[in-house]
Task: structure prediction
Amino acid sequence: MTRGVVATRALGATGIAPTVVGIGTSAPSSMPGSYGYSIDAAEAAEALDGLLEGPSTFVDTDANFGGGRGEQRIGAALARGRGASITIATKVDGDAASGRFDGSQVLRSAEESLHRLGVARVPLLHLHDPENVGFDASMAPGGPVEALARLRDDGVAGSIDVAGGSAADLGSGVINAAHFGGGLLAHTTGRIDSYGYRPVSAALAQARDVMRAACARFDAPLAAAALQFSTRDRRIHTTIVRMSRPSGATPTQELLDTCIPDELWVELDTLTSTGGVSK
Result:
């Protein structure tokens, strides 16, 4: 891969300097209900072996990816000696069956993740979607945040963070995993019917079409502009790109290498800043 991927940015005060493009691992976890296809263990192993030895050194995973299969497959790759220099970020989640998401569940989720990954600690541990719990319950004594802080203080997590919702302007590191809007800005035919886990409105679909038309006039895919819109923003320290198939690194690099003229950035910035894309 080339210059865009190997550049790094400091992630807040964590001491971590991820590559500006990180590796998303939901697809090699094999989640056919989400993506419409399966990836077997051999395919995932081949893909992860290559990705973990590539120039992107930041890996995002989740206890719930494939019901834990994603972490297991990453752990197997690490056991094969892959990814010696990678930084792994994973997330503690609520109990999938009961929905319970208290302090004890956070500790249990972290323990299970470490076991699947085959590691004693992770550099970064996220509290996943705490908006589903609510602020008061999250911050309550014995609650998820207290447990997460304990994991950090005990050395299980190098740094802790929140995954989900809007970013606060507190000098924090920012990780963007939604640069394609759930596929809305990446799909070439426009047949995506959800955005942010909600149905796509007519205004939003029109906005997408206007931006796609602007990109077409400059012979640039909308997906390339969407990805580079994230990576060129210095407030975003890494952008997580989901590998939709084992060969997914190649089209990602092609999007990063696409030339986006200044004139197109000006037009896109004008459209998004004035709200003109929804009219």
